[in-house]
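Entry 14. Ran structure prediction on the chain below.
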Amino acid sequence: MISTSFLNLCFTILLQKNEKIDETVTKDIYDIISFYKANSEKIPLSLQKKFSLICITAKLRIDGKDVDETVDNISSNEGFKESEQLIKQVENCNFTNDKLELALKRIKERKKLITILKDLPNFETVISQFNNNSYDDIEEFINSYERMISSAYTRLSEEKRNQSITKVSELDLLNDNFEYVLNQIQQSYSGENSITTGYSQLDEFLNGGFEPNRVYIFGGSSGDGKSTLLLNFVRNAVERKKTYEEKIGPTDIYIYITLENLIDESLIRLYCSISNKDIHHVNKTFADERYVVERTIKEWQESTNSAVIMSYFPPTVTSVADLIVYINEIRNRYKNKGKIKGVYIDYLDLLMAGQKFDLYRLEMGQVVIDLKCLVVKENIPCITLTQLNRSTFLKSRINIKGVGDTTLDQVKIGDYVKRGNVWTKVLKVFPKEKKKCYKIKTRSGKEIICGPKHNFPTTDGLKNIKYTGLKIGDKLFTMEKK
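Output, structure tokens:
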């Protein structure tokens, strides 16, 4: 239950003339009071009028009334005549900066508490149904429990995100002070906290590199080198120039999460990248090469005061909530010895949302929202990949000088292509790679062309031809036709 002292604190905050008490704080107070007021049967009669007073005061402030106008409104309300003494007392109360910070902290904590309390009925329902054996099997209970936890986490993360983003929701360009917004612009666009991509033109376009609190998604067709690009981003981040203080300070930690390639494949790719060796040559001479792999990679990290942590997660069963738990484990492991600088995920399409959606695009939308909550919570960037359909990519439209509107696969070296209002000469065209493909034929006669690492959902879990032994006789899940 809410205490009288907290109610008095909320009322005092609402009538303080201080720029730190903005619309976000006012809305938080309104949400808190409204939540408890909805359960009015639990509020003592002696406090019900005070609840109403604070609720109306908060609403007036949200509607744009300043402190003096708000006091005039509530003082002229016949229902609050007996509160005149309290209003005068609060008007004459001025917080010091330290006391104000503590007060605002209490309000934020209470807002988080009611976010949790709103989920309690869901928890109680699931536990009650479990105790009453209302679930058909264990799987149904586990699915219900996971959905409940994921939904609760998403709401709490969104609350954190709302507190972390800019507090400016309105700016009167004629009358308001710009100071707070200008500080936000300087902080957001200075590039001081960005992680370099390693590519100067991309860094320039991205304002210095990958910025904290942002999700970056790079798309490409199968075999275009998306995973190689992501590992290059990791390598370039580790090898960035550092000041003397950075070299002797906490270790920069870069988390590389793969849901497609296993750790061994990702590790050998990274080794070849930092040692400038051909992967085919390394594989042929690996009996000798294996003795220098560990030493090379560790010396590379130590020389830059960095650490790369690679982790494999199973695809299509891993959610962003799982990744957050893992990131917290890494933070606890390093404690004051290191600082997480960025998360790299290979790749987006293999993550699952914490709740069920009828449409795949809606599920992916929820995954991206969850990733946004993650980066704001951790104050880091997330760099990830997405799979594009090959035929769509090659058939993308492009304007070639002298030819006109055509498809991307028609571009040749020496052509001029239009980018915005500028014609740019094509200096190189990468050839289409030929990769080994397989044709799978189902009992119904349907034929499927796939690569060796394409995962199929089967009755025994995800399987592919290269790693997990998809074989004749396996049963594939398919979409039921309506």
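The longest strand covers residues 338-346. Will compare against last week's run tomorrow.
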